[in-house]
Amino acid sequence: xxxxxxxxxxxxxxxxxxxxxxxxxxxxxxxxxxxxxxxxxxxxxxxxxxxxxxxxxxxxxxxxxxxxxxxxxxxxxxxxxxxxxxxxxxxxxxxxxxxxxxxxxxxxxxxxxxxxxxxxxxxxxxxxxxxxxxxxxxxxxxxxxxxxxxxxxxxxxxxxxxxxxxxxxxxxxxxxxxxxxxxxxxxxxxxxxxxxxxxxxxxxxxxxxxxxxxxxxxxxxxxxxxxxxxxxxxxxxxxxxxxxxxxxxxxxxxxxxxxxxxxxxxxxxxxxxxxxxxxxxxxxxxxxxxxxxxxxxxxxxxxxxxxxxxxxxxxxxxxxxxxxxxxxxxxxxxxxxxxxxxxxxxxxxxxxxxxxxxxxxxxxxxxxxxxxxxxxxxxxxxxxxxxxxxxxxxxxxxxxxxxxxxxxxxxxxxxxxxxxxxx
Length: 423
What we know:
Elements: H1 2-11, H2 25-33, H3 51-56, H4 60-67, E1 75-77, H5 81-91, E2 96-100, H6 106-116, E3 123-128, H7 147-159, E4 167-170, E5 196-200, E6 203-204, E7 218-222, E8 225-226, H8 230-238, E9 245-249, E10 270-271, E11 277-281, H9 284-293, E12 294-295, E13 301-305, H10 322-325, H11 327-333, E14 347-351, E15 360-369, E16 379-388, H12 405-410, E17 414-417
Parallel strand pairs: 1-2, 2-3, 3-4, 4-5, 5-7, 6-8, 7-9, 9-11, 10-12, 11-13, 13-16, 14-17
Antiparallel strand pairs: 14-15, 15-16
């Protein structure tokens, strides 16, 4: 009791409330700078979609902290004028990540782009349109944006300096989903730090910048093509020697004409020594043939399928020569040492379900191997084939040990599944 009395006398108040522990603002600043990115759905979003805005409205302390760190406001929505103006004010000198809503009213969009033109020198990332994945693209409600909106966006990209841009994501830049060449009104010169590109519905050509930049590390094309033939494909890939991630989605071909109908003899003629992920989600046979053109490190994970999983219909509609298509995969796997299958994380999964009640049937092969014990991150080689139930395409490839016998013999775990049994 004496001690409590002394404490009360020193504080000048009764010890009735719990003490409040206040962390220094510098520490709280690290917290707010790690807030997740906001979720933008066109021009329709509120403060709950933007964590920094929501946090700034919780109490005076958090508002002071959030307002003191411009990086919290680096995500800039370019559809709503009020949010755009306020975001630019609060972000101050921070590098910006722009999200441009192509469905916004064209007159308002143009005025917003005019305001953005004053800040392009500190733009780090530009995203045009909404993310197209997660629903079947051709069944999606079509966007309502007009060509004049896109022209205004492309003009901004062409005539202004984006000296700090590292990422360009063109999810939506056309009303119709048909593949076409990019218009002239595009980047007039390649931003010096551009490393990450995603583009949809575009037919690229060799020599076309900025897509053929030697500094690119991430390249993704959605419903597009890399040239017209295998020669174009080789030239385009050679122009990106530092590539770490290559993704092609939602189209059955990599080029204007399917590679399986062309004469492809230049085995491993394209060295991509830094590639760590190759995904062909749609161009199945072209993906396997392209694998034969590439010279890849053994640390590269590969995922090839004949359609995106969320689509209800496979892309491939022609008979497939499995032995030819899998030659490239067998050639690549032959360079993987058998010791890579001795790690506990290494395994081989084979799934070849019988034609049951499901709307589609699937066959898949996945090989996981670990090259170094010191770095036990598995490398994944996965090939998946989907076919509609009852269609002529339900004839699946036969995944056998002949594909990579030394890996099957040394496999730590081998799992075989079907619709009626598993082993």
